[in-house]
Amino acid sequence: MPLITTNKPRVLYLDVDDTLLIWQRTTDGTDGVSGFAAPRAAEFIRWAVEHFEVRWLTMWCPPGTLDQHSADELEYRFNKRISAQEFMAIRNPMKFEAGLKTDAIDFDDPLPWVWVEDDIMLTEEQLLRRKHLYDNFYPTNVSIDPTRLQLTWQKLAHRFMLPDAPSIITTEVDHPPTAVLTEVEIMKMFRPKMRIL
Ligand SMILES: [Mg+2]
């Protein structure tokens, strides 16, 4: 059943790389990098779509909607714990083109919102600060700290008085079966949509 993502009283803008997916150099000598879901990332998404209207804010889909190929790729990297169809049900009605993700944040939407993202660009930070909205940004880099998404989850639950945040933080990851790509493959995947963050 597709996740229902609309008609929620608040909005969560959500990044993918380094926020939901851990990107690390592999240590098995294959000279690749692995990209796999952070601990409890699938559970976090299910919790988020239950309580927020989740909108993508990711280089995986600057237009706001995942294509089938990217959704399949995410399903694989989440070890099928979230289906491609469920990923595709998450949408952002706005898009960003010039590389500034803040272009796809709807500042006119009266709903409260938060932004879960590993890091933002200086221009984006300045814009948020000017609007006194910097507190809406939750720095969440799981490649540096795999527990970070769970900590953000706890903070969001506290801020909006929502149930079911994890009380115990885990570092256990749910690896996809063979999620090792060479760096050349990674570059092929990301070169057309390369962005610093
Ligand atoms: Mg990112």
- How far apart are the termini? 32 Å
Number of strands: 7
Percentage of β-strand residues: 15-25%
Give me the Rg, rounded. 16 Å
Structural class: alpha/beta
Largest sheet: 4 strands, parallel
Uncertain runs: none
How many helices in DSSP terms?
6
Write down the domain tally. 1
Mean pLDDT: 87
How much helical structure, as a percent, in the residues?
25-40%
Bound molecules: magnesium ion
Order of helices and strands: EEEHEHHEHEHEH
Spatial strand sequence of the major β-sheet = 4-1-5-6
Approximate shape: globular
Assembly classification: single chain
Question: Would you write up a description of this structure?
Answer:
The protein is of the alpha/beta class and 197 residues long. It has one domain. The chain is built from six helices and seven strands, in the order βββαβααβαβαβα. It has a four-stranded parallel β-sheet, with helices on one face. It has a three-stranded antiparallel β-sheet with strand order 2-3-7. α4 links the parallel β5 and β6. The longest helix has 13 residues.
What is the topology?
Elements: E1 11-14, E2 21-25, E3 32-37, H1 41-51, E4 53-56, H2 68-77, H3 84-89, E5 113-117, H4 122-130, E6 137-139, H5 148-160, E7 180-182, H6 183-190
Parallel strand pairs: 1-4, 1-5, 5-6
Antiparallel strand pairs: 2-3, 3-7
Residues 15, 17-19, 118, 197 line the site of magnesium ion (MG).
